[in-house]
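A quick aside before the break. I want you to see a complete sequence-to-structure record at least once, exactly as it would be stored in a machine-readable document. Don't worry about memorizing anything.
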Amino acid sequence: MTTLNLRQLSTASNDFESQFKAVLHWSAETDLAIEQRVADILADVRQRGDAAVLEYTARFDGLAPETMAGLELSQDDFKQAFDGLPADQRSALQAAAQRVRSYHEAQNRACGQSWSYRDEDGTLLGQKVTPLDRVGIYVPGGKAAYPSSLIMNAVPAHVAGVQDIIMVVPTPVRGSVATGGTGAAQATRGERNELVLAAAYVAGVTRAFTIGGAQAVAALAYGTATIPRVDKITGPGNAYVAAAKRRVFGQVGIDMIAGPSEILVLADGSTPPDWVAMDLFSQAEHDELAQSILLCPDADYLARVRAEIERLLPGMPRQAVIRASLEGRGALIHTRSMEEACEISNRIAPEHLEVSSRDPHRWEPLLRHAGAIFLGAYTSESLGDYCAGPNHVLPTSGTARFSSPLGVYDFQKRSSLIEVSEAGAQVLGPIAATLAYGEGLQAHAMAAQFRLKPTL
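That is the input. The structure line, written in tokens, reads:
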């Protein structure tokens, strides 16, 4: 095994800024060919509906039932999948879903309630919070299956009060025409992941279809004879899914356009170095474009972590992906102090931020931008991915500077409440009329003035 070519930077170096920018460089721009292909698929599904969905599912997933009924998963499918799992997996799914539900119920109590007040003249002002009627959840199912992602999307939607949760999940036929095999045109059933179906049972998915890609996004956004149109689409996917979500935004809401996974470990040198090495691996194994960075003021500790990376990497099943990720976008960065490390962390605004320190609460107040902050050596990022409770759908690519994790609030909308009393109209009418005349909108002004009592 060749030595890992992992960058090691120092903030004391004269060229640190240029090297640092090179590490962070990431273009979220989608390839033009993908954009055009996605545009064609969206237009086709919008025009031909179910027929187009069946055609693209056969072409890309090798799954070719005669009708859409062959692509729909039933509640019995979910229940059978759940009952067929080993007891430990059933318990783990239920425990994870309950912790995610408890967290989002607390979130809902804090921010998901309607409110109003009356001012001194009797005018009522407030806000009405209502759930979306129907949402679509995209669950990846190509290279890997993610029951945890299903739970993180469906449970907060339930807590928010959404009545219809429509899941789409690709179930490609291995060795199909989509991947160069033969005989796929006759296939009626692709590879279903029983853990995903069981998670749908636990999380309360309403309906589910075995479709993926841009055609699934189009079906959810526009609706077909079989698949109902949704109000919002959430969940991660590949470049085609991301491009499709970007294009249908406005027809429906979307959660975010997610980039590759990221982890930033802020360490003071007190955590066992093999723990930190494995935490860096935990994101690197997702994708060759994932990013894993370690910030630490202790040069000796950085060397110890590097040694553990070299020792542990050969034993990892996804070592080729981890190696490509660490060499392509990873870095070990020596800082002058923990304070400086916190400043650099804020510049990066990572998706996942581990504060691996003896006293993490000392540094947490200095950290302003991160999707999720994991405090202390025992808080591995992987616990947040599966079962801690907070949502693992997080802003990436620096967007944590202005974006938030997926939550109950993403499945609700707010309507302003205004009830002006007769007395209130006498106060507000002259103000509104004055401003409306100033804008040249006479009807606006007169509508307010009609409600004024005549002066004697």
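Two observations worth writing down. Confidence is low (pLDDT under 50) at residues 177-187. The CA atoms of residues 100 and 285 lie 24 Å apart. We'll return to this after the break.
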